[in-house]
């Protein structure tokens, strides 16, 4: 009877340890581990670490540690991952050594699909000396650790090959910016086992997630999520939402609530500053193991550090001071050139609105942009659609499109960013039937703010394109 109890406990721990793979509450802060397609996705060098301690009051609990390094080089993303699981006093350990390779396919200017491939090694190690078996007990002396167990384990240490695939789809077009990930892992292995030397396809693991990023205000972002994984008849479902409160352009406070199906209530807090993110989560146990765990759930720590690639040295710029409007930018960004600001003096120069003849009438339209973005947000399309309707009423018209930025970043970069925003608005209009010859685009960069760049709210008003419709 005693042998059966310990063997059952051993199998339960083994099964759970296999299911522990990719069982982090903060899956969103361990993206490279959870899906190889995420390697190199941010185009920065990134180091991430996660540590999870679960049910410490039951047989020392379960510990999961993950370390990942990834980077983007030319057209590919690369990632190295080490993950370790340690289960209970039996010292059943699982170590994963993984290499990721990914690349991105641009479906169009708003949608991107990333593919990822994973190859690596799994190591399983079991220390059986901590077990107590029936054959080691006798009626006179009780437990005798030196007595033979009467059991035969094929090996205490097994290494096999593992493989995986994953993909990520992103859409940056709308105010709700979704990201979907799907992965299949352990579908390649050497079919070895600590138990019988016959591995099983039940080790295969499927995981998928959906996250949607939605800006609630200039300072607050909401990120609802769902994560699901399945392995060895063990399913894991997380539902919840995180929130980011932007303290300024380089710092944000994060918090969130979620639910692990039939298991725990999830809480999360984090702080992001400059190139670092520190996160902490605690799972409040709600399962039937509440009494056995003394109501102690799981805590998890995460840390992410990023290193931006070296920027090219900006060309030396000489600005010739004149009275008003246009900035001419060098065609070759890598060559030193001169930037001129021209006042209106001929038909090809920008039109200063203050000099417009009374014969012309004009109307203003405003479109605003996310930080460091040039795509037209869906919530401002109605402004451009109204402009298109107004254009159709006046056969004689001109459209001036002026691109602006806030003061963050280098001034030359902002010149190009303002131009990109103006061009995106022009493309939107031309795609919907407005004559290209009637539109003239200009960039101000950060030189003509609508508000002082002193707060996040005021900077948001400077990330704009002003459209002026001139009609007769």
Structure description:
With 472 residues, the protein is mostly beta strands. It has 2 domains: 2-307, Porin (Beta Barrel); 317-471, 60s Ribosomal Protein L30, Chain: A (2-Layer Sandwich), CATH 3.30.1330.60. The protein is built from 5 helices and 23 strands. The strands form 4 sheets. It has a 14-stranded antiparallel β-barrel. Strands 20-23-21-22 form a 4-stranded mixed sheet. The protein is elongated, with a radius of gyration of 30 Å. Residues 1-20 and 314-356 have low confidence and may be disordered.
What percent of the residues sit in helical stretches (DSSP H or I)?
10-25%
CATH first level of the largest domain: which class? Mainly Beta
Helix-strand category:
mainly beta
Q: What does the radius of gyration come to? A: 30 Å
Series of H and E elements: HHEEEEEEEEEEEEEEEEEEEEHEHEHE
**Number of helical segments?**
5
Strand content: over 45%
Main sheet properties: 14 strands, antiparallel, barrel
Straight-line N-to-C gap: 97 Å
What is the typical, i.e. mean, pLDDT?
78
